[in-house]
Amino acid sequence: MKVLIIIALLLNLFIFIESSNPTIIEITLDNAGTTEYTTQCGQYTQFKVNFPYPCKDLNITTYPTQGETDIFVSLTNEYPKKTDLSWAATATGEYTVSISHWEPESSTGYYYISVYGDCSLQPYPAKYTIAATSYDNTDQDSNDLVQYPSVGINQITGANDYRYFRFCVPQCSDIKVTLQNCLSDAECPGAYSYPELLVTRNIVEPTVYDYTFKLAQIVRRYIRINITDPSARDSNGRNTGTYYVGVYGWCTPDEYVNNNSTDGPCSYISNVLFNVTVTLFQQPAAKCNAPLTLPPEPNYPQLTSGLTYPGYVACNKIQYYSIPVPSPCYDLNIFVTTTSDAEVSAAELAVGKYPVVRPTFANLEWTSYDWAVQNLTISAWDPNFDGGYICGPNGDSLCYIYIGVVGYCGINDSSPFEYDITATLTRSRRIYGKPQINQKISAHGTNFYEFCVDHEADITAQLLAWNSACDCPNTYSDLNMVISKTSFDANANNLVWHIDTSDVGYKQIQLLDTDSDTRPGTYYVNVIGDCSDTCTDSCTCAPCANLENSEYALLVNETSATVSNSQVLLEENYNSNRATYLGSSCGESSTVCSSTCTITESTSSSSSTKSISTTAIVLLAVLLGGGGIIILAVILYFFFSADRKGKYNRRPSNAS
């Protein structure tokens, strides 16, 4: 009984130790670090650096003199760990995290850094200095319209195709993006068109169907973005930083052209030159830092999913509706048919979300580019689509999509006209709860997946594969996996959740409900075919040739409450699922790599010894009475401080 009491007290003590926030050491940007720090095996040392440059990149580098460091960096989490959302450098010999200002998630402010003592290959505490440096990463090839205005001059786009640009705003500014080209066949015979201009903060290559600032008309040929517009701020509330620009070669297919002088035939597009330019109107910094004025939530007529409603709208007016989105795991389709003469008048769409409560063609919007019949689908995986109770002025109200039906009228028609509107929400969860089996991947390739979580829960993504050369010498692999909230093509160098490589042989990522960076919504899962092209010992370096014979399965689901907080049960669950979806074994001889697998036996022996030693320590504490608790706590803390990484689970530096 006394042993149980001691163990309970120790558990509380460890919980207290783990929950106590360690000191965060502030380092100076662009100052060569001279102080040497020591991080024990399996432990973290925390740093932070203030980064004030929205148009520069950031490098965070450790310079080890002993041992191995892993680096984890976050803008939102003061104590990022290897299981958290972070930028990271974890490969052997990799000591720099590079964060580009062109990444949508980057921003100014404090970056929080955790340096982890990785003892998987070298059983020594890490000793190192650390430095954070800023540097310019803009050249003419970056298509930066502010730094290199000439990149937007005399450009051409293909028919219904895109040209992409970007720019960075270094100081608090109002912004004007202008698109210039010939709009008249009389002035430019055979060389006029009506291209579309798109500007966004978080979509690197926007399309006309994305949530962007648009022209959406012929008369106005510029987009104005003011610092007072809350919808134009980045995810960290900044007006400064990166903006992404697209020019779309809108045109009428030649087979549908009635008048070459007015319809903008696609055959003309290759003859049309355009200029896209950016003008910045600098404002006092205090204006950008001032609290934004957020609009109240409107009370528009509310649509019910799947029902059709008749309506009418006057020329150049907008009739607004709303539809509640109870969960982020829905696709939304908006279908509008005009019942008047489509040759003269048509109902068009301008669709927004809070704080764009009155979407028009002059602000951030989704819209359809159809004529007469408007058919717009907004995917759950659109990075700007929200659902659940995360909207409104305080971020805790039910989300609505605001739908504006715009009365577009021809020259000879000025009377109101009628239309029908239907908005339909369709459940969309992709691979959530649906095992992806018999999957294969090419060397250094990436397979892309998506899932959506509609409620608060712990989620586990398991990459089920044969990870051990000891058991599967010809089919084992060292695949990687990352999860992103924002980027469909994210890799291990981006802001992602990573596999915890301390889980020997268990390739899985757990998203905890208690993590401030998780919330119900959509996620991207990317499986990466890491392997070695120059492998000389196939038993230790995961040769690329193995991938030809290797399959994997991917399982994303809610973590059972009985499993969630137990590492042992998580690993048992992994093994059970692997047996279910891959089979009980890979069917290979386990003797091929037996000479290199003795580490497994020694590790097992070491674990047994550690278990026996632990029992002895507990008994000693019982004999010593109350004072033994403190002794036991200290001994066990250092006894188990070594990281549990295994030889075959460390990501090799030659795997890309």
Automatic annotation (TrEMBL):
Residue stretches spanning the membrane: 616-640
Signal peptide positions (record): 1-19
Keyword set includes Transmembrane: yes
Keyword Transmembrane helix part of the UniProt annotation: yes
Keywords, ordered alphabetically: Membrane, Signal, Transmembrane, Transmembrane helix
Protein name: Uncharacterized protein
Origin species: Chromulina nebulosa
